Amino acid sequence: MKKILLVSGDSYTDPNFVSEFHPELDTSWPKWPELLAKKLDMICINLGKSGAGNEYIYSSLLDYITDNKNSIENIGLVIAGWSQCQRKDYQSGQSGRWTNERLDPHGDAPGWVNRSLRCYLSFQILCERYNLNYVNFQMINLYTDILNGLKYGHKEQVNNNKLIGKTIPYKGFKHQDLQRILRCIMSYESKLNTEKFWGWPIAKQLDGYTMCSLGSPIFSDEEKKIYKISELDDHPNREGQEKITEYIYDRLG
Asked: How far apart are CA 227 and CA 239, in angstroms?
């Protein structure tokens, strides 16, 4: 019987991704988890969800693994592709449907980063508890966008054209909070299995990297123009998803 490739992430991973900026565009091309599963001859379970924050990513994997205890031996590999720290995930309704907000109205960047790091450590503990093979990585920048000014979403720009090209200014103290964030990341150096966390310590200032942002090992700055959907939408296009797959497959050996 084929083993399961279990994956969660945000819009870079979501099998049902739809471009906010180009809703008419057919984006049904295979995403990297499906492409990777085919290369590995595995069954793909892709829990990725557009707009997801790190609480959802961790929780979706936790729920799948603990709700399917009798078939844990069928899980061959678990991958978490982590998202931005400032996103807020929550459940509501009788079904406990997951929803997310682009910007948590409470807290600050160092606190959000620490919340994310707790999810990363909890993911590691979960996989080790059930003796599951796993890797994880920062798919997009954890904190850079919020510190530099978060872009308004497409819907916000459509509803108010004055927001086009504008960003949400960070309300904290950028330099001081960046230093707090870097210290927080390094405080997890001894807690995490960094061999299983690709790109660690995930901050450019600490010589780490994220998978699909500036300094990415997958896309050079020049290549990113080729592998993204458009100038407005920097999500990976069909070829970009294939490039992500190639990198992960090669790295897995």
From this structure: 6
Residue 157 has a CB neighbour count (10 Å cut-off) of: 18
Burial 168-180 (b: 16+ CB within 10 A, else e): bebebeeeebbeb
pLDDT at 194: 97
The residues near 247 (Cβ < 8 Å, ≥ 6 apart) are: 211, 217, 218
Token pair for residue 228?
A: 């993204």
Rounded to whole angstroms, the Cα distance separating 119 from 10 reads 15
- Cβ count near 101 (within 10 Å): 13
Spatial neighbors of 38 by CB under 8 A, at least 6 apart, are: 44
CATH number of the domain at 4-144+173-252, please? 3.40.50.1110
Cα separation of 78 and 63, whole Å?
Answer: 13
Q: What confidence tens digit (pLDDT) does each residue in 182-192 have?
A: 999 999 999 99
Per-residue pLDDT reduced to its tens digit, 186-240: 999 999 999 999 999 999 999 999 999 877 899 887 777 899 999 889 899 999 9
CA distance 205 to 228: 25
| Neighbouring residues of 236: CB distance < 8 A, sequence distance ≥ 6 | 12, 212, 227, 228, 229, 243, 244
Write out the two tokens for 101: 């907000």
Structural domain boundaries in the chain: 4-144+173-252
pTM over 0.90: yes
The alpha-helical segments, DSSP class H, found in 76-211 are 109-129, 144-148, 154-159, 174-186
Amino acid at 207: D
Alpha-carbon span 20 to 69, nearest angstrom: 37
